[in-house]
Write a structure and sequence with these properties.
The structure is a single chain. This protein is of the alpha/beta class. Helix content is about 40%, strand content about 20%. It has 11 helices and 14 strands. It has a 7-stranded parallel beta sheet, with helices on both faces. Helix 2 (about 55-65) packs parallel to helix 4, helix 6 crosses helix 8 (about 260-270) and helix 6 packs across helix 10 (about 310-320). The radius of gyration is 19 Å and the shape is globular. The two termini are about 30 Å apart.
């Protein structure tokens, strides 16, 4: 059996795209997922091991069954609002389970890990675009849990036990070009799929805050295509394989779009209008948050290839229209 890469959260939105990219590059992905939020229909590449990353005995069996040479750790809890209501679950899933994974890696002599981190670490950044030199100042349980696990990996790396690339994603969006996989959360909290669902269903979409200090008063965010994020994981693996050391790297498009710009582009792509309900701001939302991805280019030779917002939304709309039968199987 050839070497393989373990993908925790492999049945998730980003994880399934990562598995597909690995398989396309000739690497066998072993997806680990407990299917609590992942989708069985997204498991289309490589072996699948159903279980929890926090289960040490389960992980031991997985590492014994597969010749794992690296880990891509995408499993975890990722809803900021939910994290405020369920802090114990978020610290357990995002930190404690990750420590169990690191111990299993050490026991199996696996030294390379790519961690799914988040731009939520930056909180309300003092400037944009956001680069990795800015202070880590999360304002949510979710962001703090991601920052905490980065600290854990840094401490473990300092002892020479691992090398870790922490990929700080900005807003993942879009779907595979052939609509084989895409974004489907229950409940859905991300802007682009919510606008498209509202257009499809003829329902209003909510906009939280229209009085920010931006050109049109709505928040500005960086939307990075999920296939570009998947490619970033391959770049991180190549970097580690070439002897790269522990580092944190932003993964974003480098451009910000306002909420109203996203809504207008969704309307252009679909040819349909959507009713907008303006609601008060949510606590902790910065006015602007978009990436400086220079470090990704310099260190990993990665840059996003699908940066046009219309292209991103077109792929998400195609997935929403074409993926209905597939989703019904999950």
């Amino acid at each position: 059996m050839s070497d393989c890469v373990l993908v925790t959260g492999g049945a998730g939105y980003i994880g399934s795209h990562v598995c597909r990219a690995l398989a396309a590059s000739g690497i066998t992905p072993v997806a680990v997922d407990n299917l609590s939020t992942g989708n069985a229909w997204a498991l289309q590449w490589g072996p699948f091991e159903q279980g929890d990353v926090g289960d040490a005995a389960f992980l031991k069996r997985v590492f014994e069954r597969h010749p794992v040479r690296a880990v891509l750790h995408l499993a975890g809890s990722a809803l900021a609002g939910e994290g405020e209501r369920q802090p114990i679950a978020y610290w357990r899933n995002n930190v404690s389970a990750g420590i169990t994974l690191l111990q299993a890696m050490d026991d199996a002599n696996v030294r390379h890990i790519v961690f799914s981190s988040s731009c939520a670490l930056y909180g309300q950044p003092e400037r944009t675009p956001v680069d990795e030199r800015l202070p880590i100042a999360p304002v949510s349980v979710y962001g703090r849990s991601k920052a905490a696990f980065e600290s854990v990996t840094n401490d473990v790396a300092a002892q020479g036990l691992i090398d870790c690339v922490s990929l700080r994603y900005f807003n993942a969006a879009g779907a595979s070009a052939d609509a084989a996989i895409g974004e489907w959360h229950q409940p859905e909290t991300h802007l682009i799929p919510n606008v498209l669902l509202a257009i499809q269903n003829g329902t209003p979409v909510s906009v939280f805050g229209s009085d920010y200090e931006t050109d049109d008063g709505t928040c500005v965010r960086d939307y990075v295509h999920v296939e570009d994020i998947a490619e970033a994981h391959l770049s991180a693996l190549r970097y580690l394989g070439a002897g790269g050391k522990t580092v944190a790297i932003n993964i974003g498009s480098g451009r910000g779009y306002s909420v109203h710009e996203v809504i207008r582009t969704c309307e252009q792509v679909t040819g349909k209008k959507v009713q907008v309900n303006h609601l008060p701001r949510r606590g902790g939302d910065p006015a602007r948050l978009f990436a400086d991805s220079a470090r990704a280019r310099q260190i990993m030779a990665w840059s996003p290839q699908r940066t046009d917002l219309e292209q991103i939304i077109e792929s998400a709309w195609h997935w929403l229209l074409q993926g209905q039968a597939l989703r019904g199987q999950g």
